[in-house]
Amino acid sequence: MPSLLQTDVPLQKTSSITKALRSRDAPLLSLLPTARDLYSSTSTSVFFPRRNEWLLEWLVQRLKEDDGPAGRAARTSRDCWEFLLELLHTVDAGIFAATLKRHGIVPLVAKMIEEVRGAESPEDGVAGLLDGVAAVLARLRETAKQESSISASLKAAPEVCAGILGAFLAICRQLLERGLPVDHRWVDAVVNLWRGSIWGNANSRKISAVWSEKCLGAAAALLVMPNIMDSLETTLKNMVAEYVFGTEILFPVTAVQKQSSVKPSTKELLPLLAPLKLEDTAMLGTYLPLLFHVAIKSQERKRSKADLAVVEALFTALLSVVPGLDLEPEVPNASASGGDIIASLLQVLIETGTALSSATLSRIVTKFAHLVSKDAALVRWSLVQTVLEIDFDTFLHPSVTDLNAQLFSALARAKPSDQVSRVLGLVVDGFVKARDVPGFVERWKEQLNAGDEGDVWRSDALARAFAPIVEDSLTTPQVVKTVDNLRVQKQWIILDAILRGLRREETELRLLATGALAAVIDSARSDGNNWRAWRLLVRIGSISPQLLLPIVEDAVRVVKGGKKWKEAMFASEVLIRLSEDTDDEEALKGAQVVVDTAAESLSKSKAWDGKITIIDKKSFGIALAMAIVGGHLGILEKVEGSHRKKFVDSLLSAALAVEAPSGLADARQVCQALVTRAELYEYPAVKEALLSALILGLAPFYSVSGDMSSAIKNPPRFDPENKDSYEFIVSCIQQYPLEAMRRTSREKILDICLLLDVSGFSYVRPLMYKIWKVGNGASFMATDCRVIKRLFAVPGATNIFRRILNHIFLNRENEKNKAYLKELIEMNHKILKGSKKGEGLSAGDLEMAWVTITEFWKFKNDESIAGDLEKMRKKYLQLLMKSLDSEKQINAKALNYFRETWELERDDREDAKALAAKVVGKTAAAWSTGVVDADSAVESLGVVCAVAESVEDVMNVTAFAVVAAETLKGERQADILRHYQSTIERLDIPTHREVTRRVVDSWFSEDVGDNIWEPFMVLINNIKKPETPEELSASVDVFSAVHSRLLISLPSSRSSTSFLINTKCINTLLRSHSWTIIQHNLDTTISALTLAACPHGPSLTSSVDTDTLYISLTSVLSSILSLHRHRIRGRYHLIITLLQTLLTLLFTPKLSRRKTERALHPPWLLPPNNPHLTVTSARAFARVLQTFCDPPVSTVRTHNSELTESERSKERKMVGNVVGPVLECFVKRVLEERIDVAVRREVGLGVEKVLEVLGRDGVKKVTARMSAEARAVVRGLWAEFGKGRGERV
Prior knowledge:
67% helix; Urb2/Npa2 family-domain-containing protein; Urb2/Npa2_C; 1289 residues; single chain; Ribosome_Biogenesis_Reg; 66 helices; mainly alpha
């Protein structure tokens, strides 16, 4: 709505103006422009004395009294509060104190904050509104220091201010839920309002009650937000600790009591927690643990540690908040949410290192853990685990005599799981702490005797938990006695766990000396039908293998039995270990039986899930093969060759069968594990046996590879049904290191792969390429060049062929190799000549000829091939030109062949240029119809780049490269630049200079896209320094002009791409081509960087992160300081301005600003689209600042002079005279803006250099013009800087 002062209706009288503004018919927001015009008007046509005081009274009254939607809109409008702030700055403090006393500012704020909380979308514009309200309250508080009457207007009833605080906290939560930050100034303003309302109020109980009623729920909801700011979190926790869990609340003192005799009580605390009862139970499960944590920590601040009585009181009070949740009745509580809340509260005890009494914990377990439930799924093991972590004595407390028995019974009924395993581990730890490990062993035996197979007492998890504590908790005599007792009772599970835990040699020797282990072996032999007894024998074998020699015959019998699979599994391991650790012949024969049994069983086995308890006929072979391959590979080397071959062949045959379902181990996985194990290649016999089996698996191609001449003419037919098997075998062979293959094996594999490739199985080509990395002179491909044509029947054999030729070239003096190379040339030449007769050339023929020509060209002076090679090249180019000219569509591969072949000599340039012109025409025609082929476009550009020489040619190439990049939309950009780079590198200095000048003139004269920047970067990178003075002068003129144009365009960049490449070009000129830099451009560079980083900098569109943009600026500055420092002396004021600007950017931009507040950051760094700078940018700035203050030796040395310490000191003194404003800027921003802690830490490293170069006297001069707050900041910086230097603050 326009201002009334700007309408045609004359309002010359004061009464007319006031009447118009006081009209309740018009909403306040519609009158605000008129009021603003009146406030800012300097016209003398209207006599209105003390207009600002009247406007202040009018605005506050209308804001407070207007009702309805219009009033709410005004109170929640940022403009109204900003106008109020401006009026407060212009009106005398005494006058606006009276205005606020009449109308009240606190009720107005309360009304506004409630309306914001009740809005449907409180986040819309709320940041600006809260900025305005916070600024108004800050202005009033600042004025109250001089005008005491203002303080009275800011003080309201605690109920009102508590309501404001509670509503504000609710708004903060809504903002955080939407990912919006909360400004610390808002928090300070509202918290100060609350603090002021209770100042001098001695009734702490009433204050706590008011705060709890209005704020506790909102504070708890806000504290659980994961993205809450640290400062806000600290403030809220302190308030909760003060008003809810304060000392006078937990320790209420009556008139007849002394403070020291008071015990903790929940009488005062329970009413304060009552507001939480209104919350949902699910939310209470989140709130209560946090409040419990805050309460315990608040008590630790008053004591070294919260005592048991205090924790009990807090725990009981918090439980009372949850409906129906208490510890008194003995009836178990089946509520899932109640149990979860209890568990989360107990977890806080672990985090804080506190505890509840054993009696309380016992009641908790009895009521909520459901240990006596017959349904094992109902037991809350998470709760049991938490209680065990707090205090194991809970289960031994006399108040619940049978709790320990209930725990063990529940464990017996439980199904094995990770949770139950952790509980078992804690139970073991509890008995260890109670020094009653024998007692646990007795309980373990009882459960084993009473339980069933598969329960947790028979699990490996319990054995793993028990084993580490054996020698720490039992003496050697106790171990011997326990082993002997368990042997008598045949408790193999516990014995196995004990033997797992033996680590000390002393214990093992004592067991051997007393004969305890020998007695265990005798008992285990008598119980040979128990697989756990055999597992125990494996443990004993790791201690003393000699003891197991008498049971070899028993083990062999079990392995051969073929029925007791679990027993056979461990009996096999006994035999394998004996054969590995002893020289006993019978043991070796037994190991051979094991290997044979594994081979025979593999054909019957399908898969195994890894569980020893369910090994059967269908999984025994896989399990035994995994044991041999995974831990006993050496046994395959030790057994006779026939047994080894039988095992390897069976394993491969099983691997080629049907693959097992996901999650199960099968023979294919075992075979893959075998070829990938490094240990395999330490056993020559095993390695060769496996490789031979893999080669034999490629039948029928293996069987015919002996006569390659006839086999290549009539190769075996490739059966698609065997594709999977062949791929598996080839992938296994490819895992073999080349040095692990004999040369004959490699050559055999190459011949087989050739037959497979010729038959249509090209999967072998990567393997062929790998093997040809080393010489294979006897392979068929290296002896008969005719087969190369068959190899190229399917295009794509280039890399293999190149490696073949490289190895033949190494021994080209060999007569056979000479004949091979000559025959290869003749064969290709014949193929090319045959095309005249209409036979045509296939894609493979073209590829083979291209490789042959390009590889042989390095030996073009060799008399034996020179003539034929040159004829072949010319013929090849003619055929390619004819083909490319006749085809309607562009053949990208043929273009590539032509370009690389033509570039070998670069002759017949006119014909090549004609072809390039036709190719460009075809490409443009295709683009005009919307047909865009990246390969064709890139290769067309490659041909055009290859023939370009003159300035006009290169300009056309540049235009083509830019258009291609735009058309392909960034695809194949690296290839485009590679072709363009090859052209620019060939140019002489005058041509390059002229091309650069023309590109810049045409580029900056019109609006071009970002695609020109990267080709232009290529031009800059390839600048060459002329040798003659005339040429040098001409180059400096051109490239200094280029530099100047870059500097002009930098602050007006439109995209991040252009911005970054612009700075890279400038940096390249400064670093690599410093001879092109003139003084004017050096000064302008610093100014351009400052403009790019100032609030009037460019608005960039792209997804490049802001750190990259910032570092591009600091990199240019670093180049100036490192390489051109002697040229900027006397211009340090430019550097200081740039450093101040760059430093300001490291501070977090404000989300919202007043209209009158000047922006500090450039558009490319403003939220919400661009994130603020991180520690990476801070580190880059600190390095630049350190370089400026403490120049390296290379930067202050003048040309042809030696560095002296006086020169460096002189430079530091010059910097010290000018660097003070940087320190002032840092301090000012610290006081006014926000900065990340990690960012400030990195910036501080640079500020330390500023302090160092300033010295004490310099710092005094800088701080002399600072405020008291700023001097306090500098004092802290100087104190930190002076640590270790003996400096006095």
